[in-house]
Amino acid sequence: MDQSIERKILDLLDSHRIMTLATLRPDGWPQATTVGYAHDGMTLYFVCDRDSQKVANIAQNDRVSLTIDHDTSDMADIVGLSMAAHASPVNDHNEAEKALRMFGFNWPEQAMPEEALPSSEEIQVYRVTPTLISVLDYSKGFGHTDLVSY
Question: Which pTM does this prediction carry?
Answer without folding.
Answer: 0.86
